[in-house]
Amino acid sequence: MKSKQICCIGAGYVGGPTMSVIALKCPDYNITVVDSNDERINSWNGPLDSLPIFEPGLKDIINSVRNKNLFFSTDVESAIRKSDIIFIAVNTPTKTSGEGKGMAADLSNIKKCSELIAKVSKTDKIIVEKSTAPVGTAQEIKNVLKSFNTKNKFEIISNPEFLAEGTAINDLTNPDRVLIGGENTVEGEIAINKIADIYREWIPEEKIIMTNTWSSELSKLASNSFLAQRISSINSLSALCEKTGAKIDEVAEAVGMDSRIGSKFLKASVGFGGSCFKKDILNLVYLCKYFNLYEVAEYWENVLKINDFQKKRFSHKIINTLKTIKDNPTISVLGWAFKKDTNDSRESASIDVVKDLLSNGINVNIYDPMVPKTTILNDIKELSDSKLKKLKISSSIDDSLVGSYGICIITEWDQFKEIDFNKASNKLVEPILFIDGRNIIDSEQIKSLFKHVMSIDS
Ligand code: UDX
Ligand code: UDX
Question: Which of 44, 224, 372, 403 could link 72 by a cystine bridge, Cβ 3.0 to 4.6 Å?
């Protein structure tokens, strides 16, 4: 048995890829990823082509480390018992009831895991908070551990994840920084160093930042809020471009060339999605309100308001155009994932856009290369049967074009760039193209094949 034992609770988009890369880079560590969902664990242990998460490069890593020093299991208790270091990477959704409803993070999964760790542990352990959680979560974990176990010592470390889906493997192997927060005590520093030792196996020392726990927890919320704020800033300007004739890509390029601003994360879009941005901003807003910082709360809340405004603006463009051409037309929506190269659709802009289209009498044919049909239906399950009847989930791009008046490309999947638009536009009843601004199609020749081409700035 290897001397260093790690357990990770939560085999999701964060836990799975993160532990795979640690296993690859740290052959001296034995890692067990556990999850309460047996179906998920079965797929991690099953054929490489049906892993629960689609992430470029992940399959090869799993192939080289699975059942060598990386194991997937549902036996949570024994994995906890044998490990010295336990990562918690369970989901922390926005609360749907009780105090902080619709805003604060629901920490019940983290608390449940902490209670289990306290109850089954027979030795001292380092608990690593990997799930994005509000500032103060480490203290909550500590309180739970103390109330269920007074025999063992537990050090709580905050080590937020900065991976972006679709590029997770590169983000994990070449991160901009690794952040490790802990207590300012001798034991705290020893624990911080033990976690830093894992990353030191492949990451240069200068990229490993060590802070107090609160700074680490807040930095994660701040980073995601800053990134989302840039998107809302550029998206808000795309609305002004539409009125003035300025082109948002040209504005973004000119603004981004200022080295103080930088060019990344300035692509205007139909709105940001993903499981983190909205949730983290809501956490930040809740925290500010809790401390009576209402102006600060309002400042960040506006990032979300612009995101909703942008999605509505886009869907209304489609609705207004189609309705002048035909009653109850059909449109082909390409892309359901919240960005390319992932099968994740949490908070995807497609969900809100399609809900709006269906609610306005438009029939929708959806195609996505990776998101399963069951996930798409689950994402819009609250819609009435009469609206759902207007929806078809297509198994190919061609199938989605049948009877359609236009194409609306939302996710920037590479395969959508390969579409033969000449053929596709001929299949459409009334060739209309709606594109979000993530530069999917910028060729004038393609645009000329369509009667109307609409983007978020025109
Ligand atoms: C989640 C959070 O959404 C994110 O904010 C955080 O940074 C990391 O954890 P993700 O990995 O994308 O991100 O979530 P998800 O794919 O839902 O995976 C969480 C897993 O935890 C699920 O497989 C779930 O079954 C598991 N889980 C949850 C447990 O094993 N035990 C629990 O008590 C709760
Ligand atoms: C984000 C953070 O980037 C990552 O560091 C953190 O750990 C988790 O949250 P993720 O949500 O996976 O990662 O993807 P990201 O690449 O940040 O994209 C989020 C959304 O913003 C996507 O819908 C994307 O299409 C959109 N986006 C991104 C834009 O609309 N414009 C841009 O310029 C960049």
Answer: 44
Per residue in 375-400, pLDDT (tens digit) is 999 999 999 999 999 999 999 999 99
The reply to whether 276 belongs to the active site is: yes
Contacts of 392 (CB under 8 A, 6+ apart): 363, 364, 365, 366, 400
Residues making up the chain, counted from first to last: 458
Type of residue numbered 132: T
Residue nearest to atom 12 of ligand 1 (CA): 13
163 three-state secondary structure: coil
Atom of ligand 2 nearest to the CA of 264: 33
pLDDT in tens, 305-340: 999 999 999 999 999 988 888 888 999 999 999 999
pLDDT above 80 for 440: no
Whose Cα sits closest to atom 17 in ligand 2? 164
Neighbouring C-beta atoms of residue 19, cutoff 10 Å? 27
CA–centroid distance, 384 to ligand 2, in Å, is: 31
How is residue 403 annotated by DSSP?
T
